[in-house]
Amino acid sequence: MVMMFSLVSPLQTLRSRLGAHARTCQLYPFQRASISTSTSYRPDKHRAATPSNSPDTSPYPFRIFRDDISSLRKYRGEITHNGRAVGLVPTMGALHEGHLALIRAAAAENSDVFVSIFVNPTQFGPTEDLATYPRTWDDDMEKLIALNNKLTFPNGLGRISAVFAPGVRTIYPTLPPSSDIDGAGSFVTITPLANRLEGAARPTFFRGVATVCTKLFNIIQPERVYFGQKDVQQSVLINRMVRDFHIPTEVRVVATTREEDGLAMSSRNVYLGERRRQVAPILHGALRAAEKEYDEGRLSRTEMFGAAIHFLETERLKLTDRGLDAVEFELDYISVADVEEMNEIKDEVDPRRGAIISGALKMLPIKDPQTEEERAQKPVRLIDNIILTPVINVDNFQH
Ligand SMILES: Nc1ncnc2c1ncn2[C@@H]1O[C@H](COP(=O)(O)OP(=O)(O)OP(=O)(O)O)[C@@H](O)[C@H]1O
Ligand SMILES: CC(C)(CO)[C@@H](O)C(=O)[O-]
Ligand code: BAL
């Protein structure tokens, strides 16, 4: 089953979807080398290798649009003309089950699902992994085709109609896009949200995300757009942007899809390698420990933080016994913030409003690399979050 919540009115939507007795929920299916900003700019250096887009020769059961925006618009216009609706799932490719959950959610409420695949340079900082970000076009297409075959009624109202995989010059037609904070360009900025948490670690990240999503929404004009709860601050930001710029679309947030051991699926998990991968679920574990405090009625931020840190430190001590003492990690932040704007909650969570508990943790390169892969390791930043859902019967809490 696909569960979603709308950030427009999270309290109300969560209550109605989860029922009055729901206290917490795991909302179920809800990079970088420098990019040059000057003369050496080569816009399509990083483009995913995609085949040509002749509808007649296309081996795909959906249309592939690359740089021909007017054809895409014509096709999209026909969908409206026929009384159908478009749900857009923006991605950077390297598709996994988390992305597929978004597509299923889109197919459940729209006749036509558009998936965009675009590794957006402006959201990568100058020292991040733009050049090495996984680009897996053939594999992505296989997954989309397999999923599409299953999206027949009653499993899905709609199906994937189009994949939009533009080149950088198409998305940024005038200036070479900049990843520098002071760089020139036409940008959408949403502050102060874009400067906090993920934005503090990645100063131009949300400017890049807001800018590219504005462009995608302008080009495709979807009735609804689908984002993953895994990137919760991104979802809050998009919701805010849609409201502030009166963009005529509805934002849906789809619950995080996880591996069996709790690790949130992410395209960048491939960077972890075997030994770091075994330790990576600790971030989720730490957030769960904080969530347990809330579940048991301890609402103070300090107690939730304490529980998360205690979990991390206990797990760190166990690494030697697990033969994993070469794996090192650093906590970047744990945040307890309100659901609407992600403002930090200073004191206690109001159980009538709930909260988002989120965190970021850096997995450092392994201390005693034993393979080529381990010798090449770079730090991998993991993010995750849990929604502390509002509680209807506040009296159940001990004070
Ligand atoms: N595990 C997941 N569950 C639900 N949605 C997800 C998950 N992972 C990614 N998404 C969503 O898919 C959309 C596209 O994300 P993206 O292509 O960046 O994948 P990603 O796995 O988040 O990659 P990265 O490792 O770069 O963060 C975003 O809305 C993102 O929140
Ligand atoms: C929304 C997005 C596709 C914009 O590039 C990206 O930030 C992502 O994949 O989450
Ligand atoms: N999943 C969000 C895209 C990024 O981290 O660059």
From TrEMBL:
Main enzyme class: ligase
Protein keywords: ATP-binding, Ligase, Nucleotide-binding, Pantothenate biosynthesis
Location of the region described as Disordered in the Swiss-Prot/TrEMBL record: 38-58
GO BP term (any one): pantothenate biosynthetic process
One Gene Ontology term of the molecular function aspect: pantoate-beta-alanine ligase activity
The keyword ATP-binding belongs to this UniProt entry's keyword annotation: yes
Biochemical pathway: Cofactor biosynthesis; (R)-pantothenate biosynthesis; (R)-pantothenate from (R)-pantoate and beta-alanine: step 1/1
Catalysed reactions, as listed in the record: (R)-pantoate + beta-alanine + ATP = (R)-pantothenate + AMP + diphosphate + H(+)
InterPro entries for this protein: Pantoate_ligase (IPR003721), Pantoate_ligase_C (IPR042176), Rossmann-like_a/b/a_fold (IPR014729)
The keyword Signal is annotated on this UniProt entry: no
PANTHER family in alphabetical order: CYTIDYLATE KINASE/PANTOATE-BETA-ALANINE LIGASE, PANTOATE--BETA-ALANINE LIGASE
NCBIfam families assigned: panC
Family: Belongs to the pantothenate synthetase family.
Record-given protein name: Pantoate--beta-alanine ligase
Organism per entry: Endocarpon pusillum (strain Z07020 / HMAS-L-300199) (Lichen-forming fungus)
